[in-house]
Design brief:
CATH topology of the largest domain: Rossmann fold
CATH architecture of the largest domain: 3-Layer(aba) Sandwich
Helix content: 40-55%
Strand content: 5-15%
Number of strands: 7
Structural class: alpha/beta
Order of helices and strands: EHHHEHEHEEHHHEE
Shape: elongated
Distance between the termini: 67 Å
Number of domains: 2
Radius of gyration: 25 Å
CATH class of the largest domain: Alpha Beta
Strand order of the largest sheet: 1-2-3
């Protein structure tokens, strides 16, 4: 029996025992492992996108080389009830079972009931969380706060005020002057975006690198996005509206 797993999965003994199969190529994985780690550890393709691609290659009624898709829980299965039942239906049509490592889900009537209830609860929690996040962003914007990672030329920092750590925004001493230079060059009308990108690259301006994306020179399209961002004029934008920000402005709005 072959197993295809995706997203965050845990010790899959529950699924293994339920379907009477060995661990095979899946191996024993911890709940904290990501799909990338799983793929490297078990040397198998583990994303749900791969499962979906496989399904597109076969006709209705044909069986796949997958017998079971094991998820950690229904919360990791789909974003809402429509996605949940659509994906489940596609797998069922091709003879693929769905198992959860932490919930009593199977193809029995009771298992399907649990599957539906847990999916509805998970969808409700996601919608409620989305509302709370949006409310928090709105409240922060109204007082001039920055909800996301500061754009290029700024830094998210922590300052001590009355002995307490406060999150705030400061100018990036390495990049702020170069970003400002880019605004000035483009506003002069003597340089196009490609010219400005080349000049800034020669001056040493590069993006802030992350673990996933290394630092790199700015493209013309990236500069276009920066030049249209009202954040640099001291404003914050949320839900299509502008609010006066508490961060220092980098350029004038003229």
């Amino acid at each position: 029996m072959k197993i295809r797993s995706f997203t965050l999965i845990g010790l899959i003994f529950a699924g293994v025992l339920q379907f009477g199969c060995g661990l095979f190529e899946t191996g024993i994985l911890s709940q904290g492992d990501t799909a990338t780690v799983i793929a490297k550890t078990a040397q198998i393709r583990t994303s749900y996108a791969v499962v979906a691609a496989d399904l597109l290659e076969v006709k209705r009624g044909d069986r796949l080389d997958i017998d079971v898709v094991i998820v950690w829980n229904v919360k990791r299965w789909a974003r809402d009830e429509i996605d949940q039942w659509t994906a489940f239906g596609v797998l069922q049509r091709h003879g693929v079972e769905v198992a959860s490592a932490s919930e009593p889900i199977d193809s029995t009537p009771t298992g399907m009931l649990v599957f539906g209830i847990m999916g509805a609860i998970a969808a409700h929690e996601r919608r409620q969380l989305s509302i709370e996040v949006s409310r928090g962003r709105q409240q922060k914007a109204e007082v001039g706060g920055t909800s996301n990672r500061a754009p290029l030329g700024y830094l998210n920092v922590r300052e001590k005020v009355d002995g307490r750590g406060i999150r705030t925004i400061a100018l990036d001493p390495e990049r702020a002057s170069l970003v400002k230079l880019g605004f000035e060059l483009y506003a002069s009308g003597n340089y196009n975006l490609i010219d400005v990108a080349q000049i800034l690259e020669e001056r040493g301006l590069r993006s802030r690198g992350t673990r996933r994306y290394p630092s790199r020179a700015l493209s013309a399209s990236r500069l276009s996005t920066i030049f249209r961002n009202p954040y640099y004029t001291g404003m914050v934008r949320n839900a299509g509206k502008l609010y006066k920000g508490r961060h220092p402005r980098l350029v004038s709005d003229g």
